[in-house]
DNA sequence: CTGTGGGCAACGTGCCGACAA
DNA sequence: TTGTCGGCACGTTGCCCACAG
């Protein structure tokens, strides 16, 4: 059952677990680095969180640019105490910086480190029913759980895992059945009902450096944990985003934003280096082919290929000459109906390099299901070429 | 069990039920009337909802006055789908109106009409335990439930009641036990767990004009349904309130606010007539005695007596000469620790009339527990004198 | 008049291996 | 290898009245 919990939840949570819950696509710029903040993207997130249309009748602030270069003063990781939805709190300090300065002293880009000793399983109907326990994939159990004492019959142990709120959960881990399998029995249903998990949601376990077990959840995309927000009207929130950023920019003072990786359609705080690379190292033209990373239903990554069909402002009136979603795109696969029809420069990987015509040697490829090409290796090469 | 539910919940809910859930103190100005909107009060509500301090470092908008006179363009009643917490959405249109105009054509004040055929019971430990059902006070059952057929043994019927979301709940109503009593058995526990009711929360039943049963809940004051709001920072919300009001006032356009009666420390949209009456019909001086209405733990009303100890701005820097909480007060009863130390003019009833020295004749008093004076009658007389 | 608790039956929860995908 | 099911034991839920405040 549940145990202690950090009251107030002020400090940052376990980073490894947070990133595992956030998913493989989410990476946060390092504290102290320069970033670009896009008010449009922020408003998109707020609109997504409140399920309201963003294109209201609200005028833009005359002096507020479509991008604000900031120093990322602080980042803390959090999780909603009700839903365990992960989010990050960022303190941004608007700064004046010349293009030259920025290009001469690029920030380090930090890639998202998914934990190594971890597994993530999408729950089946049997896993979430009251009739039984949780069936652990064999590989997963062997990788992250402490080894069982197989001299005992049946082999079993008690597992203790801590969630994002530092709450303890106890499970009986047993290896039984015909054929044999790993199961979580006692304690599992308490966890399922406490977290209100349903079939389709995912659970993940991590073994950290010290051998402690951590666990987290990733809810299925469908159930958007939307709160109708009877606190502030969506218009007022819209105003709030603009006014807070405008005030901070005008007075060179810090402002605070929340980034909800699993709610937001796109990241709206981008490393300055990444932004500049995308902007200056590539010529974006209509007809250009590109790839873009998405998270699949099964919590892994998948790249989709598309073509740039247009260039231009998403909102020419209020946000002229903004780089936010300035590319109109089409997708190769017809099942791409729900994918964005507008993306931003830094989200895509151009496909203009000769590597496409000359795939890497087989020796460099890792094993892959369904005969897809060795995408990760290809990506590494792409990145290199892109860097330069 | 649950049945149909209004998707989107756009339209206004049943007014009678909403007011019953909101409590006896809550009254809403009529649509079309003139009201005074106090940004400070709005900010207080937002701060209470997010459990953050309101006195941040945020500057006031230079052109934003502490009160904005508006036409109440529309009011719709709502309830949080998760918690059933009631709230009202108001559309306000800032208007220019001279003092003279306002005084010459006063709006009708509408008092809150609590339903007549209704009862409200605070749940006991037995009511909420899984061991049994719900014990209905005899008077209550006889007043609002359809009469039982006492020729049957035991007398029993099925009740169907609709909640704020138009969801149906079915209960078995039976009259049994030794001595006999009214009980809700089958269906009751489903309701308790679905609404997550605890001992101390209240449940209320209404029979409307057409004989339909309605039911609602009032949660105990202690469990503040606070959401940490990972959507917008409290600073941004603060900005949002100010910017939305400021923009609406500057452009004479409508803006939308939410009023959460059970979250907000005080009403911040006041009928213009009520505001003027309080402002012009009374001289507020230090030492003046007054009474003020509060809701008791048992969901009834109670008046407390206090003394004005000071007059002056709550926030002289950002909101100079504001009437919002401009009165510093002390309370007669020592148990008044948690009551506000600052109130606004329109919240109190002055005790300066001769009626205090000359209580109304006993014949006019209604029966009252614990020998308290006949407050309601007194209040009626007070109001009359106040009107004039 | 109504809150709590003992008694008891019905139901749901949860552990097990069997089977099959 | 692992998702679902039938079987079964046991704990909880929920209806009844007795009793007392």
Q: What's the short story on this structure?
A:
Chain A is an alpha+beta fold and 388 residues long. The first copy, chain A, has helices spanning 15-22, 39-50, 99-104, 125-128, 138-144, 188-194, 234-251, 272-280, 375-387, and strands spanning 34-37, 68-79, 86-94, 118-122, 134-136, 156-162, 168-176, 181-184, 202-207, 213-218, 255-259, 269-271, 289-295, 301-311, 327-331, 342-343, 349-350. Chain A has 9 helices and 17 strands.
Unreliable parts of chain A: 1-8, 354-388
Helix content of chain A: 10-25%
* Terminus-to-terminus distance of chain A: 53 Å
Shape of chain A: elongated
Total of helices of chain A: 9
Order of helices and strands of chain A: HEHEEHEHEHEEEHEEHEEHEEEEEH
Physical arrangement of strands within the biggest beta sheet of chain A: 4-9-10-6-7-8-5
The interface involving the most residues is between: A-B, 36 and 36 residues
User: What is the residue-mean pLDDT of chain A, rounded to a whole number?
Assistant: 84
Largest sheet of chain A: 7 strands, mixed
Radius of gyration of chain A: 23 Å
User: How many beta strands in the DSSP annotation of chain A?
Assistant: 17
- Beta-strand percentage of chain A? 25-35%
How is the quaternary structure best described? homodimer
Class derived from helix and strand content of chain A: alpha+beta
């Amino acid at each position: 059952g549940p145990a202690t919990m950090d009251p107030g939840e002020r400090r940052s949570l376990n980073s490894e677990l947070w990133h595992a819950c956030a998913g493989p696509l989410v990476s946060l710029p390092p504290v102290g680095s320069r970033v670009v903040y896009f008010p449009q993207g922020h408003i998109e997130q707020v609109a997504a969180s409140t399920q309201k249309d963003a294109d209201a009748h609200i005028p833009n602030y005359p002096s507020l640019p479509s991008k604000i270069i900031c120093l990322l003063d602080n980042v803390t990781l959090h999780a909603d105490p009700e839903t365990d939805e992960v989010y990050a709190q960022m303190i941004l300090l608007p700064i004046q910086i010349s293009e030259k300065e920025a290009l001469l002293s690029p920030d380090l880009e930090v890639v998202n480190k998914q934990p190594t000793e971890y597994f993530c399983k999408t729950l089946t109907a049997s896993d979430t029913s009251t009739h039984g326990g949780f069936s652990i994939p064999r590989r997963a159990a062997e990788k992250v759980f402490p080894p069982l004492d197989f001299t005992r019959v049946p082999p079993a142990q008690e597992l203790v895992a801590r969630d994002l709120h530092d709450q303890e959960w106890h499970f009986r881990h047993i290896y039984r059945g015909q054929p044999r399998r790993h199961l979580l029995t006692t304690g599992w249903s308490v966890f399922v009902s406490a977290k209100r998990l349903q079939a389709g949601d995912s659970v993940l376990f991590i073994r950290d450096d010290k051998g402690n077990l951590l666990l987290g959840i990733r809810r299925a995309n469908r159930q958007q944990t939307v709160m109708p927000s009877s606190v502030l009207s969506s218009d007022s929130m819209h105003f709030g985003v603009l006014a807070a950023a405008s005030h901070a920019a005008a007075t060179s003072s810090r402002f605070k934003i929340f980034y909800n990786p699993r709610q937001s359609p796109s990241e709206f705080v981008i490393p300055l280096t990444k932004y500049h690379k995308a902007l200056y190292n590539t010529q974006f033209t209509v007809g250009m082919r590109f790839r873009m990373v998405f998270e699949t239903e099964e919590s892994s990554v998948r790249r989709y290929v598309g073509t740039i069909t247009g260039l231009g402002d998403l909102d020419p009136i209020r946000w002229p000459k903004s780089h936010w979603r300035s590319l109109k795109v089409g997708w190769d696969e017809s099942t791409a109906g729900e994918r964005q029809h507008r993306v931003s420069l830094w989200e895509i990987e151009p496909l203009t390099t000769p590597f496409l015509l000359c795939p890497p040697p087989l020796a460099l490829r890792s094993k892959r299901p369904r005969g897809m090409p060795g995408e990760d290796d290809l990506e590494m090469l792409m990145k290199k070429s892109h860097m330069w």
